[in-house]
Amino acid sequence: MGAVIDNFDVFAGGFWLTLQLCILAAIGALVIGAVIAVFRISPVPPLRAIGTGYVTVFRNVPLTIVFFFSAFALPALGSNANFLRIPGLEQIFTRLSIDLPYFRFAIIALSLYTGAFVCEALRAGINAVPTGQAEAARAIGLTFGQNLRFVVLPQAWKAAIVPLGSVIIAMIKNSALAGFFGVVGDLSNSGYALITVRGEPTIPVMIGISIGFLIMTVPLGILLDRIEKRRAVAR
């Protein structure tokens, strides 16, 4: 474990960058997933078709392909994802403001891919809401949007929180691919650099990377277990 201790600053920097990537991608995935879930249950056929098509594509395409198109196709189309350089947000997540756009491309890839799974987890939560409540909301004159906003979605988020947590855990692990698509300084990229450039032994470096991901995923898993147990007791 000497390789981990001697290069602790490298691992710490990689951990912090990966954490930033996961936070931003999780926010993006939750927003995208919520919108697509609304499309999926919309009474408007074209919106339902868009939602179904989105989920079908991104649930069945490998994440490496999504990363590839984000990292190479977007620049070819003339985009550097500058729309993610949001004033105020880039002061907190400083990597957003750096001219190298691959961090922003990684956020897009993870958000788009994970958003499909968020959509299905949220749709399952929507289906768990008793139909009588939606019918009662329509009976008192609420529109489809008001029904979703005030009756269905608040309950659906609560019902879907455990599946959504599992989706976010999977996304954190999937973020390891970012280092191989131009994101310099994250956990996986830093570990690869330690092995190839500094000649550090592979196994200790991989153990260090694993510890970094466990620090992010294990507490979230414990929190989800507690939430699930509390719900079981309440039921």
Mind explaining what this structure looks like?
The chain has 235 residues and is mainly α. It has a single domain, classed as MetI-like (MetI-like fold). It is built from ten helices and no strands. The longest helix has 33 residues, at 8-40. It is globular and about 70 Å long. It starts with a helix and ends with a helix.
Which descriptors apply to this entry?
single chain; 10 helices; MetI-like fold; mainly alpha; 235 residues
- Looking at the overall shape, the CATH architecture is Orthogonal Bundle
Provide the CATH superfamily: MetI-like
| Poorly predicted regions | none
Radius of gyration: 20 Å
> What is the mean pLDDT?
87
- What amount of the residues lies in strands? under 5%
Number of helices: 10
Distance between the termini: 46 Å
**CATH domain class name:** Mainly Alpha
Shape: globular
Count of separate structural domains:
1
The fold-level CATH name is: MetI-like fold
Secondary-structure class: mainly alpha
Could you give a quick summary of the protein structure above?
This protein has helices at 2-6, 8-40, 45-60, 63-76, 89-92, 102-128, 131-139, 144-174, 187-196, 202-234.
Give the secondary structure arrangement, pairings included.
Elements: H1 2-6, H2 8-40, H3 45-60, H4 63-76, H5 89-92, H6 102-128, H7 131-139, H8 144-174, H9 187-196, H10 202-234
